[in-house]
Amino acid sequence: MEIKSLLFIVYIGLFTQKAIAQTPAIDSLQQLVSRENNPEKKVFLLYEIVNLQSEQDTGIAYHTLRAARTMAKDTRYLQAFDPFYEAQIIWMSDSAKTKQLYQQAIELLKDYKTPKALQITARAWHNYGIFLQVSGRQDEFTNILLNKVIPAFKQIDDRVSVASAYNAVGTVYSNKEDYQTALTYFKQAIEYVQGNEASIKRSMVLADANISSARCVFYLNKDLPEMYTYLERSRPYLEQVGDPVYYADYYVNLGRYYEAQAKYEQALSQFDKGLDYAEKSPTTVIFKVMLTYEKANVLMQLKQYNEARAILDHLLAKNASDFTLDNRAKTLQLRAEIEAGMGNYAAAYQSLKLGGEMSDSLHKLQEKAKITEIKLKYNDSEQENKILKLENVNRRNHFFMMLIGLFLYLSGIIFYIFLRHRKKRNLQQLKLLASEKEIEVKNALIYGEEQERKRLARELHDGLGGTFAGIKLKLEIAVKKMDIHDISTCVGLLDNAINEFRHTTHRLVPEHLRNKGLENNVKDFCDSFRASGIEFRFYFKGLNLLHSDEKELIIFRIIQELVTNAVKHSKAQHILLNCILENRLLLLTVEDDGIGFDPVIEKKGMGLQNIKSRINMLNGTMHIDSEKDKGTVINIEIAL
Keyword annotations for this protein (predicted)? Predict the structure, then answer.
C-alpha cells in the first residue's frame, strides 16, 4: 500500500493553513503599496497581495486585481502577468479556465527574460502540470518539470524551487515503482539545496526528499541502515516545518524500518505516533489509511488477531474515496490472512472473494447463494406483512399464508444446503484438477529437458566439433612448417571457438540458478550478447516469490529463446525485458526496435513453436505484435 507525493497530497491542506497566516503579510504589503511611488513596483506589490488574498477571499482578491489592472493598462510587460494571478484566484473552482489562463500567461511572458518573468513562467508551467498529474498524465508532467520548470528556475538561481521540482519528478517515478530513478532525483534535490540558507520552504523540500529517499531504498533493496540514515537526516527539517502531514509520512517509514527487522513492538509504537499526528490535520486521510493498514499488519505478526481485524473492519467501512481500489483489495487480502490466522477460513474466503482472488465460478456460486438468501428473507417479510393486514379479516387466510411462508422458508434452507454441498464439491474438483495439472507440467518438463539435451548435443557436434577439428588440422600443418602467421591464425580461431562455447553454455540453465535467482541469471545471459552492440533494459518485480525450481527453469528457457531470437534475427539496437510477478500472475514482455516480421507467416517456425510449447506447459498465453520495420513486442501471461 503506497501513497502519492507529499507535495501534491498536502497541496490543498497547505493552501488552507497558509491562508490563516497570510493576514500579517498582506497588511505589510499594503503599507508598502501606500508608500511606493514607482508604478511598476506598485503593480507587482498588488499582484503579490492578490496571490495571498486568493487563499482567503476571492472577492477581495479580484478587487485588488482590478486595481493592479488599472495601473498596468498602459504597460504590455505588466499586463503579461495578469492571467497568472487571475488563475491563482480561481484555480480551485474552475480547472478548465485556470489551465487556459496559465497557458495564456506563458505565451504572453515568453518574450521577456527578466527574473520576475522567468519566475512566474516557471510557476505557471508547474501549476499547469499539476492539473495533468492529477488527471493521470504523469509523463507529460515530468516532461514539463524537466524541460520547462527546472531550466527557468535555474536561470534565476532559485535553488530551492529547482530542488522542489526534482522532488516532484522523483515522486512521479516512485508512483510508477521505478524506485532507482526516483532515488536519483531525490538525491539531486537534496544536493541542490544543501548549502542554501535555512528557510521553511527549504526545510519542506529536504524533509520530503529524505523521507522519500528512505522509502525508495526500502523498496529497492531493504538496505535498512541507509533507510534509517535518510530518516534521521529528515528529523531536524521536520521540526522546522512542524506540519503533521510530514510527521505522519515519517512515522509510516520509521515503522516499516522496525517491522522489517521483526521489531514489531517498536514498529507498532511508530505507527501509533503517526496516527496521532494524522489526527491533527484534515489533509492526512491517506496517511490515516496507510498507518491503520500497517498497524493491523504488525498486530497480525504479534498474533493480536482480534484487534487487527477490528482495525481493518473500521478501515473498510470508510468511504471508497478515502483510498484506491488497489489499496482496498490489499486491505481485504490482509484481513483474509488475519481470519486464516484465527482459523476462520470461511471469513478468510469471503475477504479473498471480495478482493478478487477467487475464480469467477466460485464467485458466482457465492453470489447466487447470497441472492437466494436475500430473496427468501424478503419473501418472508412480505408474507408477514400480508398476514398482519389480513389477520382481522379472515383467520383461514392467515393460516394459509403461514403455510406458504413456512414452505418458502424450508425451500430456501434446502436450496442453501444444496448450494453449500455443490460449492464443496467444486472445491474438491478444483484441487483435483490442480494436482493433475502439476503432474502434467512435471511430465512436460522431463520431456522438454530430454529435447534440450538432444539439441545441445547437436549444437556441440555440428558447431564446436567441426571448429576444433579444423583448428587441429591447421595447427599440425603450421607446426610442421613453423609458420608463425598460421599459428596466430589458429589462436584467433581458438578465441572464436571459446566465445562460441561460452555462448552455448549460457543457453544452459546457469549452474547457480537456485542461488543467484532468476533475475540475476537472466541479466547474466543477456550480458553474454554484449559484443553484439545491443543495449538491454530490464524491469523485474516479485520474482523472489517464484518458489518453484521447475517453473523457474521453464520461464528461464522462454526468456532465453525470446532474447536469442531477437538478437539473431531482429537487427535491433535496443531490447526491453519486463518480468513481473504479482498476485500469482506472471507478465513477461520482450520488446525490440528491430526490423520486425509477419507473425502469420512466421508462426510455424521452430523458435516460436518451442516457446509456445513451454508456455503451454504452464497454461499461459502469448501475444505477438509485430510488423515489418516496426519492431516486435511479445507479451506472455502465465497464472502461477
Answer: ATP-binding, Kinase, Membrane, Nucleotide-binding, Phosphoprotein, TPR repeat, Transferase, Transmembrane, Transmembrane helix, Two-component regulatory system
Give the SS3 label for residue 36: coil
Q: Give mean pLDDT, residues 533-538.
A: 88
What residue numbers bound the domain in which 114 lies?
1-157
CA dist 587 to 35, 549, 584, Å? Answer: 67, 18, 10
Contacts of 481 (CB under 8 A, 6+ apart): none
CA distances from 375 to 300, 362, 412, 413, 421 (A): 37, 20, 9, 12, 20
Q: Residue 526: name the closest of 545, 514, 540, 515 by CA.
A: 540
8 A C-beta contact, residue 294 and residue 255: yes
414: how many CB neighbours lie within 10 A of its CB?
10
pLDDT-based confidence at residue 424 (cuts at 50, 70, 90): confident
Condensed to tens digits (0 to 9), the pLDDT of residues 273-318 reads: 988 888 887 666 778 888 888 898 999 999 998 998 898 888 878 7
Q: Which amino acid is at 14?
A: L
- For residue 624, tell me if it sits in a domain: yes
Give dist(CA 590, CA 574) in Å, integer: 11
Is the CA virtual torsion 613, 614, 620, 624 positive or negative? negative
Cell of 200: 521553511
Which uninterrupted H or E stretch holds 367?
helix 360-390
Contacts of 10 (CB under 8 A, 6+ apart): 243, 245, 283
- 11-31 burial, b if ≥16 CB within 10 A, otherwise e? eebbeebeeeebeeebeebee
The CA distance from 293 to 280, in Å, is 19
Closest C-alpha among 4, 538, 2 to residue 218? 2
Q: What are phi and psi of 635, to 5 degrees?
A: -115, 130
**Is 71 a domain residue?**
yes
Contact at 8 Å (CB) between 169 and 185? Answer: yes
Residue where a domain stops, chosen among 134, 157, 180? 157
**Which residue did the predictor score with more confidence, 446 or 631?**
631
DSSP state of 529: T
Q: Residue length, the chain? A: 640
**Grid coordinates representing 567?**
538478437
CA 400 to chain CA mean position, Å: 62
For 592, the enclosing helix (H) or strand (E) is strand 585-592
343: left (phi over 0), alpha (psi -120 to 50) or beta: left
Q: Are 328 and 316 in contact (CB under 8 A)?
A: yes
For residue range 128-142, what is the model confidence (pLDDT) as tens digits?
998 888 888 889 999
H or E element at residue 222: none
- The CATH number linked to 114 is 1.25.40
CB 637 within 8 A of CB 586: yes
Interstrand relation of 574-582 and 585-592 (parallel, antiparallel or unpaired): antiparallel
Round to whole Å and give the CA distance between 149 and 169: 11
Query: Residue 633 burial (CB < 10 Å; 0-12/13-18/19+)?
Result: middle
Domain end (from 114, 134, 157): 157
